[in-house]
């Protein structure tokens, strides 16, 4: 029997072992965040929050986890650029907030590129698994923007302020193994083992002592929800304001004109690759 064809960029899959999967499912675009995808992510995350099962698994289809905001959707909007970017960020931020506040454990599985907003989406998990070959890069400053999706909130808490500044200001690239050493992810695994390991981890949590796991997670997240909410609001404001400026618009146009690669000699962009769009 053939499976139904779906054009939804984000899907929910309910597994019989109590795992509820939130799947980024637009591999042809690297699961990039334009307004349609960000709103779908928000809506599906809210659905999952209303019925999270015993554990939630966040993963992607295709070769990349999420390459961040879709610069092709941002470019060419002129005076409307900032409002569009703000709408994308706000929708994605509502998803981040809903996932952060899940009462059940959240496992994320990262393969390929996690860039821009994909970083914050990956780091919202309680347990974050990455393929050894995964590539993490912030990439915002290379196109004249600032972090969103909670990246500038999660990173200092995970790796400390010095390393967070290094990642955000220089666009340093980390592999999955690097990310484990730095503390961005819980552990790295061989790419061929990522999906099975992530699902098994979520299933084990779903089969665990639910009341204790919920209470332990509440302790770990105590007091952070409202602080994150305020920070996400400021991230959205700043990235939208910069997107309206000439520097960001010129840098985005230049990046796209170069086929998704930085201009020669642009050291701030030299670590970006063609699949990283913000």
UniProtKB/TrEMBL annotation:
Q: Where is this region: Disordered?
A: 257-278
A single MF term (Gene Ontology): catalytic activity
Please report a single Pfam family linked to this protein: ECH_1
Q: What is this protein called?
A: Enoyl-CoA hydratase
Q: Which organism is it from?
A: Streptomyces capitiformicae
């Amino acid at each position: 029997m053939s499976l139904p064809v779906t054009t939804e960029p984000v899907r929910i899959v309910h597994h019989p072992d109590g795992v509820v999967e939130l799947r980024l499912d637009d591999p042809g675009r690297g699961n990039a965040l334009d307004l349609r995808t960000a709103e779908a992510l928000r809506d599906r995350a809210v659905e999952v929050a209303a019925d999270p099962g015993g554990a939630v698994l966040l993963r992607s289809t295709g070769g990349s986890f999420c390459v961040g905001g879709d610069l092709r959707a941002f470019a060419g909007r002129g005076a409307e650029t900032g409002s569009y970017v703000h709408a994308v960020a706000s929708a994605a931020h509502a998803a981040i907030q809903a996932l952060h506040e899940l009462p059940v454990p959240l496992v994320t599985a990262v393969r390929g590129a996690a860039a821009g907003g994909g970083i914050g989406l990956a780091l919202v998990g309680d347990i974050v698994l990455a393929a050894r070959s995964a590539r993490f890069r912030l990439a915002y400053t290379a196109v004249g923007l600032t972090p969103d999706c909670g990246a500038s909130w999660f990173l200092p808490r995970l790796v400390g302020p010095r390393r967070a500044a290094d990642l955000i200001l220089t666009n340093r690239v980390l592999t999955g193994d690097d990310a484990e050493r730095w503390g961005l992810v819980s552990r790295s695994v061989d790419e061929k083992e990522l999906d099975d390991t992530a699902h098994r981890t979520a299933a084990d949590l779903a089969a665990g002592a639910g009341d204790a796991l919920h209470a332990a997670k509440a302790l770990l997240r105590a007091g952070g929800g409202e602080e994150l909410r305020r920070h996400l609001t400021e991230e959205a404001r700043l990235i939208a304001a910069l997107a309206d400026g000439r520097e960001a618009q010129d840098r985005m146009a230049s990046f796209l004109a170069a086929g998704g690669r930085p201009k020669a000699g642009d050291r701030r962009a030299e670590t970006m690759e063609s699949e990283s769009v913000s």
